[in-house]
Write a structure and sequence with these properties.
Lantibiotic dehydratase N-terminal domain-containing protein, single chain, 10-stranded mixed beta sheet, about 45% helix, disordered C terminus, alpha+beta, 5-stranded mixed beta sheet, Lant_deHydtase_N, about 850 residues
């Protein structure tokens, strides 16, 4: 029986994990860390006693001797001269004993370091030999795959590992340690599954905190965007453009900075890169095709209307653009390719094809399943052959392109014992309630309304596609003005926002709430840190008080977040929060269906109940928008094609001062994006329409802002406490290392000296062995909602797991940090950590809010959580 509880999305790493750190060395370092702590504790008492003795010294010689001893105690070094009598200062004897024990352990670590490093190399080589890992590397990073194989051969071969081989360890360690903790879907790095919450006691349900990985089904595929482009170059039943679809080649690239559209022109002489101005006749073509390929007559009609020219002249412009290579034709609608199976798409129509094309298409069809079924050792060669066939196929079709091979790893349909987590999930709603205050999509939603009414007037009704670019641009302009007020160096005065947001002042009140909430939490973090406590724990009542002043306007819409959770002991750790209407797993629905699952109809019904609570029709966008991750099997009826978007209108409701999308008949419509592309990459009409419905991102920026606004000398390490709401951790403990950490990382010249220095630093500040290096994001303002350019920096500053008790990890640590570049980096506790023999696991759960209500996770019948106004 189908449960009304929203389905859960599982992400589990197939790699069976092993700590890289050598067990014997780890044991010694744990003892050393305790010895360092004991020595520091004894040294404080000893230093005070010596200070008192120095003041009472009977001679200058005695005083000098005591001062030298106190200096040695302070520096943790051997005294040049040990006092002959220790009766007067008993703590000196205790300090000497503690120092001797510490030195014994340091010596043991130093002497054992080379052998420990070699044993770790064997562990690294074994991890690199994991079948799923190697298959993923062969597909995603062939160069790393080859390096991994060379490294394994070197480690398993006779003799010592060469210096040249050791140079590759930094990259390989980063890859394998990221793989051990990553849960984001990419090839076989992560297996995914969609689970239906089961009644308590169901014997077939998996325990959410103890998910066994018993295998998954590899689903091969091709980049639909490039495949659609290449297939469009093949002959069809009707080769006249008037019977085809016309669109932008995915190989073209508009460059607003230079004011040009760059595109590729193919001829018998080869391929040429050309450019045309964006503000010329091309502008009307780009406008006509902003939502994807359209029928030739529709494009001609659009250009004629925008350019104010005759249909004959508009047709001439379109045909000329096709001849130049600015545009290209397609033989089928894009949504058909987006939802189609590669096997069907590569089954070519019964018309004469260029020489070799049909044979190459058949070879690609047969080659894809062979790649997924091949053992790890044979995958590289098969992939090379398949990529060669794809290249020759695109050349033969007359549209040379790089069609990438894709792979998803999908588990059979699951049931989950959701009741295991129902108790800690009680704190999830209040946690989301706190973090949603900082969701910048709230700002974007009201800024769109303000921009619309200022331009068109209250109650206006205008074509959406025609005016969406203006609204997006105006929101960006106003967001920049907001950043000037609230960004670094801004005035922080809400009054400076006058005229930017709606007339009711809700935006100013929201910023005031954010400032006051931040200041209050900052004070609590400071108090917690000064008390030496490791966690700031808030109650649901605390959150209710902190968010009490949230303007009603920002509670008026039903919203869903997809919250990413992991279990750590008896707590749940909230890793992130993203739009929660199935967007994160829609691309896996077809694979679930083919394995007998019913996730697709369950999601469709859930979305209909939640977003259609007031009778409004719910539909989805079907476009690829130049991103393969947007390809998915349609979920909702009446999905929007590129042509449909040009029939929609954007209307303002004066009574509620809100915007809504209307269909061609004037009926209200809610549009959901179900592809997984970044919202900042949406075309303007989809950006506006979806921005009126979906949630944004949940991100706990409070520790970052606390650190940025609290004075710090940058020398001594600062410890930031955890943050929790009930049993849900919303912020892990972190350490801003400062110059103190820099000194430890730079210790040397021998490699073991860095390991010893970092162990001493960890002991002083309670840093665990397992940490994650992170960087404070620079995109926490409203512009981040539509700023895909920040993604490149995020890629360079990915979170990096590091085992600080590992000889090899510490050896390559300086280079890891150097490659992260400038910016504020910190160390965060790896929670949950790596346990030998386990798999990294993460669940995505939906947390919803009724129209006018509060966020909560509903484990039972969700009448109240289905978007119904309560």
């Amino acid at each position: 029986m189908t449960s009304p509880e929203p389905q859960w999305f599982l992400r589990v790493n197939p790699l069976r994990r092993t700590r890289l750190a050598d067990p014997e060395q780890r044991r010694l370092l744990a003892e050393l860390a305790r010895a360092e702590a004991e020595l520091a504790e004894v040294a404080e008492v000893c230093s005070q006693e010596l200070y008192e003795r120095i003041g009472a010294a009977g001679s200058d010689a005695e005083r000098r001797e005591l001062i030298a001893l106190r200096r040695a105690v302070h520096n943790g070094r051997a005294a040049k001269k040990t006092p002959e009598s220790l009766e007067a200062t008993p703590s000196v004897a205790r300090w000497l004993a503690a120092w001797t024990g510490r030195e014994r352990l340091r010596t043991a670590v130093t002497q054992g370091y080379p052998a420990a490093a070699d044993r770790e190399r064997a562990v690294l080589a074994a991890l690199l030999g994991d079948g799923d890992l190697l298959r993923s590397l062969a597909l995603i990073a062939p160069e790393v795959h080859q390096e991994a194989e060379r490294y394994r051969a070197a480690v398993e071969g006779p003799g010592k590992v060469s210096a040249r081989t050791r140079k590759s360890e930094r990259g390989l360690i980063q890859y394998v340690t990221r793989a051990m903790v990553r849960t984001s879907p990419l090839s076989r790095f992560t297996a995914v599954g969609i689970a239906e919450p089961a009644p308590a006691g169901d014997p077939d349900a998996v325990r959410p905190g103890e998910v066994p990985f018993t295998g998954a089904h590899a689903v091969p595929g091709l980049d639909r965007v490039m495949l659609h482009y290449v297939l469009g170059g093949l002959p069809a039943d009707d080769t006249d453009p008037s019977g085809l679809w016309v669109g932008m080649p995915p190989t073209s690239a508009p460059d607003p900075e230079s004011g040009k559209l760059f595109f590729l022109k193919f001829s018998e002489q080869g391929m040429h890169r050309l450019a045309v101005p964006l503000d010329g006749p091309v502008a009307h073509l780009l406008d006509a095709l902003s939502m994807g390929p359209r029928r030739f007559p529709a494009v001609v009609e659009h250009v004629a209307a925008r350019a104010g020219c005759s249909a004959e002249e508009a047709e001439g412009r379109v045909r000329q653009a096709l001849h130049q290579g600015v545009l290209c034709t397609f033989t089928r609608p894009e949504e058909e390719t987006a939802a189609g199976d590669y096997d069907d798409l590569l089954t070519l129509p019964d018309v004469e094809q260029p020489p070799g094309v049909r044979e190459l298409a058949n070879r690609v069809r047969a080659g894809l399943p062979r790649v997924t079924e091949a053992p790890a050792a044979g995958r590289g060669a098969l992939l090379a052959g398949l990529r060669g066939d794809l290249g020759r196929f695109s050349q033969a079709a007359g549209r040379p392109a790089h069609i990438t091979v894709e792979e998803d790893y999908v588990m059979p349909p699951l049931k989950v014992a959701a009741s295991d987590w129902h108790a800690p999930l009680a704190g999830l709603g209040p946690a989301v309630e706190l973090l949603t205050v900082f969701d910048w999509l709230h700002d974007v939603r009201v800024l769109m309304t303000a921009a619309f009414t200022e331009r068109f007037g209250a109650g206006a009704n205008v074509p959406l596609a025609e005016h969406a670019a203006f609204i997006v641009g105006e929101v960006s302009r106003r967001a920049a003005a907001m950043a000037a007020v609230y960004g670094p160096g801004g005035t922080g005065q809400a009054a400076a926002l006058s005229g930017i947001g709606p007339a009711d002042g809700c935006l100013e009140r929201m910023y005031l709430l954010r400032r006051e909430l931040s200041e209050e939490v900052h004070a609590l973090l400071t108090k917690t840190a000064q008390a030496g406590e490791d966690t700031l724990r808030l109650t649901a009542a605390d959150v209710a008080e902190l968010t009490r002043a949230l303007p009603d306007r920002f509670r008026s819409d039903p919203l869903i977040y997809g919250v990413l959770l992991q279990q750590a002991g008896d707590q749940l750790v909230l890793n992130d929060g993203l739009p929660g209407h199935g967007m994160l797993y829609a691309r896996f629905l077809e694979a679930d269906r083919r394995q007998g699952g019913r996730a697709l109809p369950r999601l469709a019904e859930h979305l209909r109940r939640f977003y259609g609570h007031d009778g409004t029709r719910i539909t989805e966008d079907l476009g690829l928008h130049r991103l393969n991750v947007n390809a998915h099997t349609p979920v909702l009826p009446g999905g929007l094609t590129a042509e449909d978007w040009f029939t929609l209108r954007l209307a303002h409701d004066p009574e509620t001062d809100t915007l809504r999308v209307e269909d061609a008949d004037g009926a209200p419509l809610r549009v959901l994006p179900l592809g997984t592309g970044h919202p900042g990459l949406f075309p303007p009409p989809l950006s506006v329409a979806s921005g009126l419905v979906i949630s944004g991102r949940l991100f706990n920026s409070l520790p970052n802002s606390w650190h940025a606004t609290t004075p710090w000398d940058g020398k001594h390490t600062r410890v930031a406490p955890r943050m929790a709401v009930g049993d849900v951790l919303i912020g892990r403990r972190r350490w801003y290392g400062g110059a103190e950490l820099d000194t430890a990382v730079a210790a040397g010249p021998d490699e073991h000296e860095r390991l010893l220095a970092l162990t001493a630093w960890r002991s002083r500040h309670g840093v665990p062995e397992e940490v994650v290096i992170k960087s404070a994001p620079e995109d926490e303002g409203p512009l981040s909602v539509g700023a895909p350019d920040v993604q490149s920096k995020r890629l360079a500053q990915k979170p990096q797991y590091v085992d600080l008790s590992s000889a090899l990890a510490v050896r390559v640590l300086p280079r890891m940090l150097e490659r992260r570049g400038a910016g504020t980096s910190y160390l965060e506790e790896a929670l949950p950590g790596v346990t030998d023999g386990t798999h990294a696991t993460e669940w995505v759960l939906e947390v919803g809010r009724t129209a006018g209500g509060h966020f909560e996770y509903h484990p039972a019948d969700g009448g109240a959580v289905e978007g119904v106004r309560s």
